[in-house]
């Protein structure tokens, strides 16, 4: 059970027993735990023995008094798949994809929503609202449905249809807005004030981060299993498709907690933030050597999860990249979509465009020598490609007339 909420910029603390959004300085609040007190009862071996098949197997570092209190749809516990060495992947001896498409609603957003909705319901929230240009809206709609509470989603008009439809099917009230995610965020804030809804915007409440940090915990177990060792271990490099950055910041927090618990040492992966060329505020700030990222003008990319022109957790992401001796790179829309095709055809995984982006970035950093193909590398595929079929129309299909005498000759042309 968490014991304190702390402003991520100034460090002052806030009560844990009431609904909270940002700190007084308008910065994210971070949940803290009495890790020393749980050290003897929360160990890797104990976690391994649990039957719980969700993020709530880590309940001691999540906002509940027991796993039974969670509002869960079975999120997390996703596979870490080692890449086959073929085609463009041939040089990489220890390349893995953490495949988050296995989550409820097909994306890693489920982890954060499960934690945030669980905590907010326990503190008396009666309705939820959030801006979303992609998967978060769907995830929020389904966890609200599970909680039996209304959900209001503000989406830019160009949000992929699948994301809009899934939210509507779950009974969410969806508003399509003629602007960007940041405009939707403004409307969410105003509507929450006016109607008393709880704002689930990314990093504007403390617990989506907590849910997403479980990717960091799981990875330590996955990597140990992959190397046949019982000691938890982390990869050398993690590639993360970065929008609001919740997963990046969350995993970094998880590594710190695991060190305090004595589960790992001080070693850390190099963290790589991947953004699209048309919307790269974090990459620009990282390259400019500044602490925060100004609004990125005219944001555009087909990877809708990366279309975040300004992020409230900007300074936390940049800090994580620097402390980890990581980096930040951009890829073009053409490169990220090519990445989706290569992962599908060579690895059998239908990745989302954001997943394609991290593979494109890994190739780019291999070419510059920053990444060595024999390092232990983890790419995050944050969602399923199935929601992006509109970007990947099948080409070159052969149509068959099953009544034709030459139908086998037609097939032979494709063999
Ligand atoms: C598939 C996908 N990948 C990545 C992101 C960005 O995630 P984060 O906000 O943790 O940076 C999103 C956010 O919408 C997403 O839907």
Task: Describe what you observe in this structure.
With 415 residues, this protein is of the alpha/beta class. It is 36% helix and 14% strand. The protein has a domain at 80-106 and 206-391: Rossmann fold, CATH 3.40.50.1100. Helix 4 (135-147) runs parallel beside helix 5 (161-169). The chain is globular. Bound molecules: pyridoxal-5'-phosphate. Pyridoxal-5'-phosphate binds at residues 107, 109, 134-136, 202, 241-247, 305, 352, 354, 382-383.
In short:
The protein has 415 residues and is an alpha/beta fold. It has helices at residues 35-38, 44-49, 109-122, 135-147, 161-169, 181-195, 207-226, 246-260, 281-288, 314-323, 333-347, 353-368, 407-412, and strands at 2-7, 13-14, 29-33, 80-82, 95-99, 128-131, 151-156, 173-177, 198-199, 237-241, 270-276, 327-331, 377-381.
Summary keywords:
13 helices; single chain; 415 residues; 36% helix; Rossmann fold; 4-stranded parallel beta sheet; globular; alpha/beta; binds pyridoxal-5'-phosphate
Distinct ligands: pyridoxal-5'-phosphate
Instruction: List segments where confidence is low: pLDDT < 50 over at least 5 consecutive residues.
Output: none
Could you say what the CATH topology of the domain at 80-106 and 206-391 is called?
A: Rossmann fold
- Strand/helix succession: EEEHHEEHEHEHEHEHEHEHHEHHEH
Task: Note the topology.
Layout: E1 2-7, E2 13-14, E3 29-33, H1 35-38, H2 44-49, E4 80-82, E5 95-99, H3 109-122, E6 128-131, H4 135-147, E7 151-156, H5 161-169, E8 173-177, H6 181-195, E9 198-199, H7 207-226, E10 237-241, H8 246-260, E11 270-276, H9 281-288, H10 314-323, E12 327-331, H11 333-347, H12 353-368, E13 377-381, H13 407-412
Parallel strand pairs: 5-13, 6-7, 6-9, 7-8, 10-11, 10-13, 11-12
Antiparallel strand pairs: 1-2, 1-3, 4-5
Helix pairs in contact: 3-4, 3-7, 4-5, 7-8, 11-12
């Amino acid at each position: 059970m968490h014991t304190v909420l702390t402003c991520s910029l100034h460090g002052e603390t806030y009560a844990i027993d009431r609904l909270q959004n940002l700190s007084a300085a308008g910065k994210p609040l971070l949940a803290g735990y009495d890790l020393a007190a749980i050290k003897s009862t929360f160990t890797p071996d104990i976690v391994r023995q649990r039957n719980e098949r969700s993020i709530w197997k880590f309940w001691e570092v999540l906002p509940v008094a027991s796993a039974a209190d969670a509002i869960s749809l079975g999120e997390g516990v996703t596979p870490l798949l080692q890449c086959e060495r073929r085609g463009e992947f041939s040089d990489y001896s220890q390349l893995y994809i953490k495949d988050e498409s296995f989550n409820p609603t097909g994306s890693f957003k489920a982890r954060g929503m499960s934690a945030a909705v669980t905590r907010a319901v326990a503190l008396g929230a009666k309705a939820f609202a959030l801006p979303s240009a992609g998967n978060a809206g769907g995830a929020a709609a389904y966890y609200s449905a599970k909680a039996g509470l209304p959900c209001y989603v503000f989406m830019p008009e160009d949000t992929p249809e699948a994301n809009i439809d899934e939210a509507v099917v779950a009974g969410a009230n969806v508003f399509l807005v003629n602007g960007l995610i940041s405009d939707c965020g403004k409307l969410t804030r105003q509507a929450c004030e006016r109607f008393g809804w709880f704002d689930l915007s990314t990093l504007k409440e403390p617990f989506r981060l907590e849910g997403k940090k479980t990717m960091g915990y799981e990875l330590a177990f996955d990597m140990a299993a992959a190397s046949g060792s019982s000691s938890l271990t982390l990869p050398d490099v993690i590639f993360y498709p970065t929008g609001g950055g919740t997963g990046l910041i969350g995993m970094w927090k998880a590594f710190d907690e695991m060190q305090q618990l004595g589960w790992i040492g001080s070693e850390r992966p190099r963290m790589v933030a991947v953004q699209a060329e048309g919307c790269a505020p974090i990459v620009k700030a990282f390259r400019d050597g500044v602490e925060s990222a100004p609004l990125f003008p005219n944001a555009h990319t087909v990877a809708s999860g990366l279309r975040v022109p300004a992020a409230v957790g900007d300074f936390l992401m940049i800090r994580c990249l620097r402390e980890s001796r990581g980096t930040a790179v951009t890829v073009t829309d053409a490169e990220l979509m090519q990445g989706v095709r290569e992962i599908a055809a060579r690895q059998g995984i239908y990745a989302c465009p954001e997943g394609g982006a991290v593979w494109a970035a890994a190739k780019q950093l291999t070419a510059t020598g920053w990444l060595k193909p024999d390092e232990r590398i983890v790419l995050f595929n944050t969602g399923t490609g199935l929601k992006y079929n509109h970007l990947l129309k099948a080409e070159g299909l052969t149509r068959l007339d099953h009544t034709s005498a030459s139908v086998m000759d037609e097939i032979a042309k494709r063999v």
